[in-house]
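From the methods appendix. Each design record in this collection lists the tokenized structure first, followed by the designed amino acid sequence. Records were kept in a plain field format so they could be parsed without special tools. The example shown here is representative of the layout used throughout.

RECORD:
FOLD TOKENS (132 positions):
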């Protein structure tokens, strides 16, 4: 299992370095795996690379599942549950389920930010929910 995660991480770094700079925020799913082990039955692990173009801002949203993040490139400003964070390349974080992201923004005018996100969720549920 450890070697799978090493392979996925290495692959994500290669994919992130080869991607063309996006004009908008985009995400690319790089792995989905259904987990059926004692204590974590019927859970899916999904990893995504989210690319924030320079100056881009995501709409407010929540993740209904445990969420882990690792900033591959750039810098992001995030307001999660009312607390402001500045993440730089190499920073990692954990977010509890259903917390509100009222802001996620790439403040750079020239450098994209790339975020590797790791979700553990029910396979039938979305990883992000955008309030109406």
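DESIGN:
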């Amino acid at each position: 299992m450890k070697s799978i995660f090493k392979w996925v991480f290495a692959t994500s770094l290669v994919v992130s370095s080869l991607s063309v700079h996006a004009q908008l925020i985009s995400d690319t799913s790089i792995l989905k795996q259904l987990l059926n082990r004692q204590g974590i039955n019927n859970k899916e692990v999904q990893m995504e690379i989210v690319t924030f173009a320079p100056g881009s801002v995501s709409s407010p949203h929540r993740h209904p599942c445990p969420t882990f993040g690792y900033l591959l490139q750039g810098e992001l400003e995030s307001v999660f549950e009312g607390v402001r964070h500045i993440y730089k390349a190499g920073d990692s974080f954990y977010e509890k389920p259903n917390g509100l992201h009222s802001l996620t923004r790439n403040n750079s005018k020239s450098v994209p930010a790339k975020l590797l996100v790791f979700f553990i969720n029910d396979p039938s549920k979305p990883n992000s929910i955008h309030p109406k």
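APPENDIX NOTE: The first helix runs from residue 2 to 18.
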